[in-house]
Amino acid sequence: MHLHTSYEIGGPAQLYALPASQAEIIRLLLFALEHDVPWMVVGKGSNLLVSDDGIPGLVISTDAYHKLTRDENYISAFCGVSLKELCEFAQENGLSGLEFASGIPGSVGGAVFMNAGAYGGEIKDVLYCSKALHPVVESLSSDNPVLHIKAEEHDFGYRSSAFQSKGWFHLSSVFKLEYADPDEIKAKMDDLHQQRWSKQPMEYPSGGSTFKRPEGYFAGKLIQDCGLRGYSIGGAQVSEKHCGFIINKGGATAKDVSDLIQHIQATVLERFGVELQTEIRKVGRW
Could you report the per-residue pLDDT of 95-137, keeping only the tens digit for each? Predict the structure, then answer.
């Protein structure tokens, strides 16, 4: 799985599938459910920490489930489309609203799943509706297995959505955007890109921002104030450029990253009384 995550870390998946159609996704889910095979879905792997021992059961990659279409100021994107592709497609068509997401690694499915956001914007601000599957045999075997989810039914919160609480399989989303000059949109995207590269350790593999923002604080500032800038365990290191990131400095294992996360959480809790919650998800055999 190290080939399928932005951390470039992780052992093998027991089973790995690349469905290219809705029918193939349904067949895979039915196979897993009917044979009691544990399963999980992976997009671009940008917020996953996969165990060194790998993942038991079936991993369903959305990379091959990929389509982008436009209808006036609405863009429909399948879950396997990358945010980079979505944002560039919007810019080329003179549609504004997704500029904040242009530098976020990951897929549309992952972005909706966690209500991804940056620079004052979040997916919930532009999402119009979604399609999903409810992964139970009765629903998947019905004549109409696709759920149509309105914007308000997503129950968006800070890095959370109904896809997490209800366990839906995200298929696609429609985004409602505003007409704007393509050159102005590109200029804003370029500016945010420069900001990201100047402030974040984009030159190293990582899972993006490691911790959620605790209310009233900034995780990176708390970690820095604990004297942990550059602190390392094995090949995992607190970024010297931005303390909110744990990077793979070279040869890091999942255990290195996990141990460093736990050390940071314990240190921040002891000094400031603040419990840091992770944005990245640990998956596999731990």
Answer: 999 999 999 999 999 999 999 999 999 999 999 999 999 999 9
Q: What is the CATH number of the domain that holds 119?
A: 3.30.465.10
Residue 167 shares a structural domain with residue 234: no
Parallel, antiparallel, or unpaired: how do β-strands 48-50 and 281-283 relate?
parallel
Q: 0.90 cut: is pTM over it?
A: yes
Domain encompassing residue 248:
219-283
pLDDT score, position 163: 97
Question: In this structure, are 240 and 272 located in the same domain?
Answer: yes
Single-letter code of the amino acid located at 52: D
Q: What percent of the chain has pLDDT over 70?
A: 100
The per-residue DSSP string of 111-144 comes to HHHHT-EETTEEGGGTEEEEEEE--SHHHHTSS-
Tokens 């209800």 belong to residue: 166
Rounded to an integer, what distance in angstroms lies between the CA atom of residue 5 and that of residue 113? 17
List, by residue number, the catalytic residues: 159, 209, 279
